[in-house]
Amino acid sequence: MNLFAATWRVPGLSAHRLKHEMQRLASVYPTLDTGSIRHFGTTDGLLNLSMMSNQPASIAPRIYSHESRGALTLFCGLPVDPQNRCHAHDAASIDQHWDQVKDRFEGTYSIVRATKHPATLEIQTDLLGGEPVYYSRFGDGWIVSNSVLLIERLSTYRTLDAQGVSMLLCLGQVLGDRTLREGIRVLPPAERWRWTEDNSEPVTTNYCSLTSLVCRPRKKLRNLDFEKLGKDLEAPLVALSDEFGALSCPLTGGKDSRVVAALAMRAGVDARYSTFGNAEGDDVRIAAKIAMQFGLPHDIINISESDVESNWDDSCLPSIRATDGMRSLYLLAGVLKPLSNVNTAKEIYLWGACGEVARSFYGRLPIFKNNTSDKDVIALVRKGNPDGSYQLTRSEAQGIATTWLEETIADYVQQGIALQDIPDIYGTFMIDGRRLGNNGRALAGYRDTFTPFATRAFFEATFSLSPMQRNTEPLHYGLVRHLVPALHGIELAQDNWYQQNALLRYIGQSVNDRMNRYVNGIRRRTQRFNRSKSSFSHDDSTFHRVTWFESQRSKIRELALDSGASPVWDFIDKDRFERIMSDKESPMVRSRCLKLLFHIATLVYYQCDDERKEKSGPTRSLDRHGLTESKVAPL
Question: Given this model, what pLDDT does residue 621 score?
Fold first, then answer.
């Protein structure tokens, strides 16, 4: 990975201070090499920029920075030039081809370019903001970094951000421009910010607007060119394979990974496939079948309950610190293996993130209802939020999250986006965008990621179809069938390929939904529902999270309740939390709000971390009216 921090018009921060705080961050990101620290800045202190990366042997052929003629270019993550004319893993090539390639880069990345004469600072974020860049204001000055903790250490430690915490607990993710720390924000996706000597505010440019991707003329499915779309999606994979050799690729019984595998196989890229799960699970069984039929190199990665339980103490805090508290412990299993391999070469991991948008995964508005409203959209996008039925989160936090969500939906409408498209747009450009960054930061030192679904070509094809047509999952169906027909015929883990007639598919879904509601109502009335094993609402065949949580429950409960004056209790009902975490309550009941309990545990560990107790920061109060103003403490 490449860690950086830049200051603009903050004369109180010296190059020595930047270097010192960078060195301290090596304890948070153990793959970083303190010997790699380099500094770039102006003599008058207007601009200071420092960076630190992994050891060269582990990141080759990546070259994260390049300095020449009083200018420095560096990148984080991994940009990809789909035309493969710029070696985007080399900062010198980015600098040389900047004007030609800056608007066409794909991938998960941020790019920083700075000059001394005249002094300028320019930062570009990727299409979804999957490689997050954070900033904080100090009068006319700015601190910008890809670490929230580093910004705090360079300025002042902060209290919890009420809106960020409310989002995590009530919406399941820290979203928008928020972090968990007061006064530290996130640069928007698909933007360039440029600071110059003449202006105290940066000039911002949106190089790929949301409306240009999603407000598209509709096509009929028969007019989609799967040959062209396949080639557009294969091109970045070929570019990565040419530069890095073997890529890592997930293989499961799901549809997103099926498309990624089909693209890799059709493009002929060198890839090694892997599957998370138990040998008895459908994912492993189907993946093994695919690997055998097509002769693919394939690994099975099994994370057992004992793996999580025995590594909990050594893994949870490093994961939380690396992600600044924005990756839930619900996802802890995903970091266990990499965290034990500090000195291994950094891999390129292909995955299926954002593929859900073309499957209308985030919502299906009733097409026969007149006057669909923004309230219908809000109800739909909140379906997947943490379970609030146990009232663990305070009403004030719920109100803050709801207000933000309403304003976000209203902003989409203001941009001219159709209500029927908003659930998929919100799920992809808001939730998935931040999830890529929040989750990916935990493994940034060990791998770079690329998803062919988070590309212009895929978004343009997706939104050329109506929401009703997307509901039949036509891009997944058509791509696999066109690219590798034999792969299309292999069973899926859960659903079969859907009926491609949109109306018939919608009617079938509606009937099925009504039948499920009817059956569940009968079960509840006869009380059979509460006696059955299915009452464990997180009985997961891949990761047994109920077992994980129960093994650590007493420890989490003690840590949370011992911090009696913690601001965490501004957001969580302490009495209800104490009751649901007690020995008297059954694991079955806890399982029904398990995600929320994992989010609360993450927040508790994050707030109690000794790394953040060296200074006290400003406060901001939370009441039923929302946030009240306070000032960030000066440097």
Answer: 34
Phi, psi of 375 (to 5 degrees): -65, -35
Cβ density class 136-168: b for 16+ within 10 Å, e for less: bebeebbbbbbbbbbbbbbbbbbbbbbbbbbbb
Reference 471, options 453, 495, 488; nearest CA is 495
pLDDT band at 345 (very low <50, low <70, confident <90, very high): confident
In this predicted model, what pLDDT tens digit does every residue of 268-287 receive, in sequence order?
999 999 998 877 889 999 99
**pLDDT digits over 113-128, tens only?**
999 999 999 999 999 9
Q: 442-465 burial, b if ≥16 CB within 10 A, otherwise e?
A: bbbbbbbbbbbbbbebbbebbbbb
SS (H, E, C) 209-274: CHHHHHCCCCCCHHHCCHHHHHHHHHHHHHHHHHHHCCEEEECCCCHHHHHHHHHHHHHCCCEEEE
CB 236 within 8 A of CB 107: yes
Residue 480 contacts by C-beta under 8 Å, 6 or more apart in sequence? 258, 259, 262, 487, 488
* DSSP secondary structure string for all residues of 565-601: T-GGGGTB-HHHHHHHTSTTS-HHHHHTTHHHHHHHH
> How many CB atoms neighbour CB 535 within 10 A?
16
Place of tokens 């490689």: 131
Q: What does the block give as tokens for 324?
A: 């600044």
State the Cα–Cα distance between residues 115 and 122, nearest whole angstrom: 9
Rounded to a whole number, what is the largest CA-CA distance in the chain?
A: 78
What letter would DSSP give residue 63?
B
Cβ pair 232, 336 in contact under 8 A? no
In angstroms, rounded to a whole number, what is the distance separating the alpha carbons of residues 112 and 560? 40
3-class DSSP assignment, residue 463: coil
Mean pLDDT, rounded, for 535-540: 57
Given a contact cutoff of 8 angstroms between Cβ atoms, the answer to whether 545 and 598 are in contact is yes
Distance, in Å, from the CA atom of 31 to the CA atom of 27, rounded to the nearest integer, reads: 9
Structure tokens at 159: 């209290």
Phi then psi for residue 63, to 5 deg, are -125, 105
pLDDT, position 281: 85
Cβ-count burial 102-119 (b if 16+ within 10 Å, e if not): bebbbbbbbbbbbbbeeb
At 18 the three-state DSSP class reads helix
Cα separation, 306 vs 304, whole angstroms: 5
Q: Is the pLDDT of residue 534 over 60?
A: no
3-state DSSP assignment of residue 106: strand
In this structure, is the dihedral angle defined by the CA atoms of residues 141, 147, 149 and 153, taken in order, positive or negative?
Answer: negative
User: Is residue 38 classed as helix, strand or coil in its secondary structure?
Assistant: strand
- Other CB atoms within 10 Å distance of the CB of residue 503: 12
> Helix or strand or coil: residue 159?
coil
Per-residue pLDDT, 344: 74
Residue 295's identity, in one-letter code, is G
Surface-to-core class of residue 350, CB atoms within 10 Å of its CB (0-12 exposed, 13-18 middle, 19+ buried): buried
Q: In what order do the strands lie in the sheet with 185-186?
A: 38-41, 47-53, 2-8, 141-145, 134-138, 185-186
Given the DSSP bridges, would you call strands 65-68 and 71-80 parallel, antiparallel or unpaired?
antiparallel
Within 10 Å of residue 505's Cβ, how many Cβ atoms?
17
Give SS3 for 346. coil
Give the number of other Cβ atoms within 10 Å of residue 531's Cβ: 11
Instruction: For residues 339 and 303, give the distance between their C-alpha atoms in angstroms, rounded to a whole number.
Output: 13
